[in-house]
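Note to self: keep these together.
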Amino acid sequence: MTTDFQQAREALGRRLRELRGQRTQRDLAGLLDWPQAKVSKLETGRQTATADDVTAWAAAVGAPETAGELTARLQGLETQTRSWRRQLRAGHRPVQDVLTIEYERSTELRAWQSSMVVGMLQTPDYARAVFTRYAELHQSPRDIEDAVRSRVRRQDLLYQPGRTFHLLLWEAALHAGVAPTNVLAAQLDRLAGVIGLDTVRLGIIPFGAQVGVPPANGFWLYDDRTVIVEEWHAELWLNDADSVALYRRVWDTLDQAAVYGTHARRLIARARAQFTDRP
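Structure:
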């Protein structure tokens, strides 16, 4: 799937090719003491340049004044807006498959969600309701069942040793009516069931708890390497150190207000009781 990130990387590559001018790739590689393959990959967007790479490139082609421009383009790759309009052209399943790659290459995963249950803990029926509503909102192709299967299959990672999922929910997520009441009740039973699993730390911030930052957008942190922030119009994929550190501070601050274990079970049971005997 072509992403906004890849398009930006290819655009940077075209600019590098333009600066190379009449020199051959081999000639430039010789000046830089690089393999020719690296020059080719950078120009075609198959490899992400570093700040040192673009600075050296600018000097080698006799245009050191362009180093600032190239560095700015590179920084643009570090904060990427992946619009839902573009991502969902082929439906929700491809988006889920891309996310699975991030999960599989991570060992410490942290999530914050204020409005609904995080995907890693969703039941199939709950996930189906969520995907259906987003498909209606974005008017995207209806591949609901494929998306549900992909999301549920990813949950196998919860039972594999070597990863820890640190998951934070606001209590509001337990009450949000994003699905029929019987589906919500089953979803809460599922949440209660994962408490105590050695790979999962499920924390819930109660209504009325004092929080160090206002509860806002949901996001995932992957190994303090990448942050994915959820917006209505897009996902933000952030991998620059400052942004990652900021979201880690946000997560740690919210975590201080969360309750775990028995206290979390009580909040889930209180929400579950509201759905008992409802149609």
